[in-house]
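testing teh design pipeline on a random one, pls ignore if ur not involved
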């Protein structure tokens, strides 16, 4: 998400920060380039005009021009204006001790049914008692799809009865939710390939009967400007309280996310970032602005790690490493933990500073498939071989390669990486906490000074140290 926009804006700001002084003409030039970047990212024209006018007014102020770092001040103004444009994070307005109905709206194919299951799963994790119900009697197997998603994720779902109309299903769902003391009833309404009057009349009838506390419009971010037209029409006819943007992970532009609040005057609640049941992120304006401007997303990175990584296992692995004990079982554990966190390039973009090194990241050939291959290689070894890699000679390597479906050269590459990791662990044991500082200093030099300052400790890592476990 926002890859193209982020790269364009960072190019603009890099040019700006190289200038020692800042004039009004420079600000105007910067605003023109930002305007083009936003339009190319599919941000709605009225939104772009308003945004640029707001930023320019603040950027040409005397207080900005006279600051010690005027260019950095302009970047901060853009950041703060992006946060304002995206809107504050607003949680769902669920009331305690009563039944809350959430109406899921959207066109066919927008990801409404999947989003319904994801939202139910999230609310269930938060301690809410949830009931799902599908009102889609038109799309073939639509109700069966929601039933299957509910089964896969251990979620309660309304049973399917033949020949029911949407209003009949709504009445039965409301009564079932009351009988089962459900906190939240999620109604997955029918979508259409386009908005029509019949669809809207049916939705209005369901809305009037269910009296939803939240009416969430599910929009596919990939449809770009059309997303805004859909949002406007649903908001005028039904009245939406928020939006869920799906397939954000496949949209490198992100214009819909930047325009949606300005157009509907309602908050973006969630972002769909994948197919899995937990791939629903709470929309956070500051974190999105940070990502767009290449500032990373440390909070998101930590949350991903906390959710995906086994903390007890990670602690034990860290203790073994710091004590100097490190074998291929430990390397396997690391590989499996990293694999749980998802796409590596996506994770690395969340690290402050690294998102600005996009071309270098692409050149590094970072590939999740390599992790799978490395895992297969280690799993093809015997327990004795994992504990004593020194015994791995030619015949054993051939057997391991055949078992993992790779080449012997792949096995040799993994063993070389293991040796380098083991070498680092030895320095950790020898130098204690300062060993980490030394390694960071060495890596800082290798990345051209883009890692945080690590102090003056002279690390003892060999000059040949170049570790990339994910290179093809």
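output:
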């Amino acid at each position: 998400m926002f890859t193209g926009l982020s790269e364009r804006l960072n190019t603009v700001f890099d040019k700006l920060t190289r200038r020692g002084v800042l004039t009004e003409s420079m600000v105007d030039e910067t605003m023109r380039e930002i305007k083009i970047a936003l339009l190319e990212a599919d941000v709605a024209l009225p939104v772009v005009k308003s945004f640029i006018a707001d930023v320019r007014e603040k950027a040409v102020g005397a207080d900005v021009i006279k600051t010690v770092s005027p260019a950095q001040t302009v970047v901060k103004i853009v950041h703060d204006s992006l946060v304002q444009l995206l809107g504050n994070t607003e949680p769902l307005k669920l009331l305690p001790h009563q039944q809350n109905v959430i109406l899921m709206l959207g066109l066919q194919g927008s990801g409404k049914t999947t989003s319904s299951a994801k939202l139910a799963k999230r609310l269930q994790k938060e301690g809410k008692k949830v009931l799902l119900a599908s009102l889609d009697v038109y799309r073939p197997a639509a109700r069966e799809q929601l039933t299957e998603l509910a089964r896969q994720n251990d979620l309660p779902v309304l049973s399917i009865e033949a020949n029911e109309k949407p209003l009949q299903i709504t009445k039965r769902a409301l009564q079932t939710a009351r009988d089962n003391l459900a906190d939240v009833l999620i109604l997955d309404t029918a979508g259409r390939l386009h908005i029509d009057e019949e669809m809207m009349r049916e939705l209005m009838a369901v809305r009037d009967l269910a009296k939803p506390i939240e009416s969430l419009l599910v929009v596919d971010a990939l449809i770009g400007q059309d997303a805004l037209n859909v949002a406007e029409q649903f908001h005028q006819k039904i009245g939406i309280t928020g939006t869920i943007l799906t397939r954000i992970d496949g949209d490198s532009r992100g214009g819909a996310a930047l325009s949606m609040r300005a157009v509907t005057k309602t908050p973006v609640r969630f972002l769909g970032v994948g197919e899995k049941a937990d791939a629903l992120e709470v929309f956070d304006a500051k974190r999105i602005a940070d990502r767009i401007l290449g500032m990373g997303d440390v909070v998101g990175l930590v949350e991903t790690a906390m959710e995906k990584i086994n903390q007890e296992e990670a602690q034990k692995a860290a203790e073994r490493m710091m004590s100097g004990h490190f074998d291929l079982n430990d390397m396997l554990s690391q590989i499996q933990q990293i694999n749980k966190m998802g796409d590596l390039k996506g994770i690395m973009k969340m690290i402050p500073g690294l998102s600005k090194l996009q071309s270098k990241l692409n050149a590094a050939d970072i590939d999740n498939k390599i992790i799978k291959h490395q895992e297969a290689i280690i799993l093809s070894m015997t327990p004795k071989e994992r504990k004593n890699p020194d015994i791995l000679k030619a015949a054993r390597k051939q057997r391991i390669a055949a078992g993992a479906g790779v080449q012997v050269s792949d096995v040799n590459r993994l063993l070389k990486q293991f040796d380098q990791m083991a070498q680092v662990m030895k320095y950790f044991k020898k130098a204690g906490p300062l060993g980490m500082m030394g390694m960071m200093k060495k890596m800082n030099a290798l990345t051209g000074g883009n890692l945080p300052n690590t102090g003056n400790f002279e690390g003892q890592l060999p000059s040949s140290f170049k570790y990339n476990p994910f290179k093809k």
